[in-house]
Design goal:
Layout (H helix, E strand, L loop, with lengths): L2 H10 L4 E6 L4 H17 L2 E6 L4 H6 L7 E6 L2 E6 L4 H10 L1
Parallel strand pairs: 1-2
Antiparallel strand pairs: 1-3, 3-4
Length: 97
């Protein structure tokens, strides 16, 4: 199953999950990694990591303008975060839905 099919499957199952758009040389992307790991561990949110340089069509489809960009899907709602964010920022958004 490719990335696009996996995303659609998770959306159709109404799963809570995130997409992390990054590039390998991005310092902010690397700095975000432990925060997303905490969301996975503490809050059960899985993330699909998408290297923008290798998967440009998916980045274009989701209108990614900068890296890192994180999109969290919950209850049919997309929460979009551009640039580095703190754990609490993600948590506030997903708890409100």
């Amino acid at each position: 199953m490719n990335i696009k099919e996996t995303i659609l499957q998770k959306i159709n199952k109404n799963e809570v999950f995130g997409l992390k758009f990054y590039v390998t040389w991005c310092k902010a992307c690397k700095k975000l990694k432990p925060i997303l790991e905490k969301l996975r561990h503490d809050d059960g949110i899985t993330f699909i990591e998408i290297d923008v340089e290798k998967n440009r069509p998916i980045a274009v489809e989701y209108y990614v303008k900068c890296v890192p960009t994180v999109i969290i899907f919950k209850n049919g709602v997309k929460h979009i975060f551009e640039g580095y964010q703190k754990y609490e920022t993600f948590l506030e958004a997903i708890k409100d839905v």
